[in-house]
Amino acid sequence: MTGPEPAAAPRGAARPRVARHLSRLARQLRGGPRMNLGAVLDHLGPASFGLALVLLALLALVPVPGLFGVVFGLALVLVAAQLVAGQPRPWLPERIRRLGIPAGPLSRGIRRSLPWLRRIERWHAPDRLTWLTGPVPGRLAGVAMMGLGVAIMLPIPLANLLPSAAVVMIAFALMMRDGLALVAGLVVAVLSLGWAVAILWFGADLLGRLAAFV
């Protein structure tokens, strides 16, 4: 099994303009009624694990009624698992691809995230400590993002903010072969997963105490 090379940029490659891609997507969505998830991902261009992971993490933060956070978290788990397995391009089941997303909230959510994404782009440095972005660290990053996707699926208010930020940091690091940024992203991932576990632990304990009291 090969490492997750499709997410990483080749050595010496130009800095990927993620914010530019998403800004173009937000303009295309503006004024439209709905767009299915598959069409949104297709707008990003061919075979980009990094862009797909960034977009799915941002989608999980868009305040849309319904169980969209669960669906986006599940899609993120599937894409991250394919990254670990060394698949050549991201793939989602047709049922998830057909999911309709309100275009207005999605466009507004992307536009609001653009300043933050541009700051992340400037902070990353292509080909920095590339030995930390090889197949084994990349596979570890994929496993971490699978866990982050599960955390995003949890029905806990605001609990998806830190996992989504960690996914974006890791995806940028892999695309730019930035080993230092990858380490930082994995640290944020560990913190966010620990926070999710703590919330579940204390929530279960509180429910148990309330049940005993009643």
Explain the overall architecture:
- By secondary structure, the chain is mainly alpha-helical.
- The chain has one domain (5-213).
- It has helices spanning 18-29, 37-42, 49-59, 68-85, 94-97, 103-123, 135-153, 161-176, 179-213; strands spanning 34-36, 100-102.
- A two-stranded antiparallel sheet has the order 1-2.
Count of helices? 9
Instruction: Enumerate the strands of the largest sheet in spatial order, edge to edge or round the barrel.
Output: 1-2
- As a percent range, the share of helical residues equals 55-70%
- End-to-end Cα distance, whole Å, is 54 Å
Structural class: mainly alpha
Largest sheet: 2 strands, antiparallel
Low-confidence stretches: 1-14
Series of secondary-structure elements, N-terminal to C-terminal: HEHHHHEHHHH
Total strand segments: 2
Give a brief outline of the structure:
The protein has 214 residues and is mostly helical. The protein has helices spanning 18-29, 37-42, 49-59, 68-85, 94-97, 103-123, 135-153, 161-176, 179-213, and strands at 34-36, 100-102. The protein is built from 9 helices and 2 strands.
Outline the fold blueprint:
Elements: H1 18-29, E1 34-36, H2 37-42, H3 49-59, H4 68-85, H5 94-97, E2 100-102, H6 103-123, H7 135-153, H8 161-176, H9 179-213
Antiparallel strand pairs: 1-2
Helix pairs in contact: 1-6, 3-4, 3-8, 4-7, 7-8, 7-9, 8-9
Question: Keyphrases for this structure?
Answer:
about 210 residues, mainly alpha, two-stranded antiparallel sheet, 2 strands, about 5% strand, disordered N terminus
